Amino acid sequence: MSKKRRGGNPFKSRSHTTTNHVAIEQQQTYVASTHRIRKVNVTVTSDPKLESPPHETPYISSLEDVQFTPLDNSIPVSDSGKPTAELGGLKVEAKKKAKRYEDSDAPLLSWKEHYRDHYLDAMMVVEGRGRFFTDTCCRCGENQPRYRCKDCFGLRMYCRSCVVLNHLTQPLHVIEEWTSRSFFQGTSLRELGLQIQLGHAKGQNCERPITPDKQFAVMSWNGIHLVDLQFCGCENAPERYVQLLEIGWFPTSFKEPQSAATFELLRNFQITNEQGKLPATDFYRSLEQIVDGTGLVKLPDRLAQFMLVVRQWRNLRMGKRCGRAHDPSGLSGTTEGSGAVPCRACPQPGRNLPEGWELAPPGQAWLYNLLLNEDANFKQKARARANDARDAILSPGWAFVVDHKPYLDEIVKRAKDPDEISHCVSFSAIWAANSKKSKGLRATGIGCVSCTRHELFRPNGIGDLQKGERYVNMDYIFLSTLRGSSIRHIVISYDIACQWMINFFLRMNKMPEWLQLSPGRKVTFKVPKFHLPAHKETCHAKFALNYTEGVGKADGEGQEREWSGNNETASSLSMMSTGARWETQDAHCNHWNHRKMINLENSLLKKLVGAITEIVVHQRSFNAFHEALTVDHSALLEVWLAEVEAWERDDLKLKHVKKALAEEDFATELTGNAQGLNRNSMLIEALDIEEAQRNLILYFKNNNRTLIQQTANQKRQTTLLLRIRSFRKEQAKHFPAIRPVLEALDATEKVSPQHMVVHLSSSETLTPTIQSLLRTPELVSIEIRLREAQGSDALIKLQGHLRARSLVSMYRDRTVKSQSQYTRHRALEEQLQHRIEAACSTYRVARAALLRLQGPGDWMKVYQELKDKDVRAINERILCEQEKEQFRQDLLRAGVSESDLAGYLNGVVAVTTKPLRGESKRITPSWIWYKTLPDGSTDSASSTEIEASLRVEWCKARARARRSREELLLVDEEMRRALAFCQWQAHWWLTQINRRKDVSPWLSEGLAAYATEHAFTERCREQAWTRKWQAVRIRAREVLESLRGSGGDTELGKLAELVVELDLEDDNETNVPVDIHMDMEVDYPK
Fold this sequence. Notes:
Mean pLDDT: 78
Strand order of the largest sheet: 19-18-15-20-21
Structural class: alpha+beta
Number of helices: 31
Oligomer: single chain
Number of strands: 24
Strand content: 5-15%
Radius of gyration: 39 Å
Largest sheet: 5 strands, mixed
């Protein structure tokens, strides 16, 4: 039994290695596109009577009364001919192929051949007056028609007076005139006599109209228009800017406006800018080109006014959406962060958490942890502008960007803090903090905090970086986003968390008091999964999310995905003034958050469907592994459980585990003896000869030996031949009756020594006479004991060679830099592979001999059949067929001939996955690692190493099962929180209706209409999400109940057969590779 380890990391073992033995460069995936999988629809049918309660509790104890409904499911998948597959219990059934039509399969080809010219002719008809043209006006039927409107339906022709009458309420339509030169030429309603009167109802005249001093320009979705406009100058008339706003035109000035932009234009610009990242300058230039693409028409330049209006519009839209119009204090009373679209699936006390959440027991308190990640983005630079000091900041700290006045004050006070020093690897973040060039830049980048689980930007979670990624900046941004939140436990993932966490609380105490965390709050620091392998070995387990309680399957890399959308604005933002840049950043982050919030309907559903499958697979795998270990290692399991629980409870105080032991000695004797088994020297010699024969066969398999190696092999053959003849003489002395047979063999046998027959009791080729002589009870008993020892010894050697192979591969991947070094390592790997094959052959021969000597029996539980897929290190998994085929294709592309291909592929049955990435797809170790051999058949050092390796794999299997269970519980809780937030938000909007008193009736009506509309929308969203999630949530609870109860593997397997309907074309996820091969195969111990 291995010595008990105290205070160590149960996930690390000195003999455990993590390497890439076989490099699989590309995983087979399918991309969501029109040509492959457009959608995987996840429609889950459910009983409409089963409705979710308004405030359901997340505790598992409340699931006992749930009634379960069977699901009727189907998943449409690609019609590219892929076979029906079963993905870890998730059934994927290909739909029957639909009949193919050229018009739908190749629409452009069909259009090009049959329709293109017809389209062109029809378009040319529109250049004239059309085939419906008559000599009279379409409206009055009297006058000659000369005008048509490009924006009205039908392109009908009208006379001058009728076209003006038609557009009394559409003054911004584009009008064309049929000229004497027989073509249409642009004109305007202003030139035709249309006059716009503000401040009065339609048909009423103003007694005191006021005409602007200059031509009034209006920017609309169809161009820039000059209009004849009159303001109302009557007594008690509203201000001119108010008169424009009341008709949906946004004035460019609040004193004497000379231009305006329509609300419709500003809405279109905001969507185009935030979704398509089109800068305001390009958008305005496109309006000019809509009016005139020839460059002959001179338009008034209103670009500066348009840029000004855009900032005002965004500021007002933010205040409108967060309810500032309903608050008596107005926009001036906006609190920091209130203008940001929040994540409704993250815990928010008072909004989506149940009453008494603070009193949840330790086993459930993790459901209310706040998971965040932090990172810096150096593409979001900002150039210093001359007008920065004069630029007004309209929303200081209202949304995502922190209020920069107190922020910069704190940065200045801490400017002389010592430079950050890395005690881990040389992080570029720390290097950049100390060396980032900032000449000509107001900011070298931004720091940001977002929620880990749903990838939404956090309120007050963005700030400029003046000189790289300094701790004072990142501390302030992190603490700023936690203001107003009373969540007790925060899990923050940051790519340099191992360094950032050092002295974090000391640095926090130097911050203003309003930023400091209360004493009862806990912060856990972790490193994102993708970044963790670059850290030192000592960081891997301590900062791994895979081994962190209460985080589910979170990877901590969401910030990187957020940058993919945010970086598209970097070039335009870098040239903006201070206020414009921060406000635009807020707008784009709000747009991202809004789309992510809308997509929670699908994203949470997909997570829950995946969690159901994963929890069944990993729980089954862990149960099988645990039960197999219980037979021979029950005492160790108790020790391991105590160690891992202690490590999880107090991770930060445990010492680091020492690095892996030095590589074991690779050299083994080619004709080794079974130690400690000296019953009969003759039979021992026979077994040694058999092993020498097998080794010599492996030596001769290599046809590329040098002359010296060929000479050595010839000497081995001679030595083996002498040993066989000597053995036969000794055997003839003990069994005189078989002397003639042995002498005849010596005289007539023409085969090589490695293929000569060695007669033993277990030989297959014994004649009845020789069998009666050699298979005596005494000889059979002796050989059984020798064969058992031989099989045990072979397994021990096989384990050692497999561990050595992993170490060599790891060393090669980390240190080999040249072709010559690779060649030397390749030779060493070939030697190890020969030894692995020799050990496998020895074991199989020994087991076959035992089967012939004593037939089937209980001994087969210990000496199981050794298949090719069982020959793998403890941290390796079987290659799937697609990976084997991919490896074969890679060899072919590398120039390996078909004749040499078999040699390369021989023995390639496993791949060692790295422990910190892809843990969810690991499988149960081969049986060779946890079957106890008979007493005396192994040495203590090897037993200790095996136990250490088993402990590592047991801890990892346990962690995978626990993370899968947490993921299921977390996603279900997130769904509950999202629905609760909808209810809270709907109620909040209704409470805003009558907050403002002493307002005009029409303003009161507008306030009530806006609040009621949003409350109605939230109720509809809650009902839609409830319907879509209901059946899958019920199935998830069935799985949890089965895990809590006595449900076996069969019941779990049935529960995992979930077929749902998922939309893969979600916002920000178009053309994301979708791996439909989930690699969930598990080999269970026999």
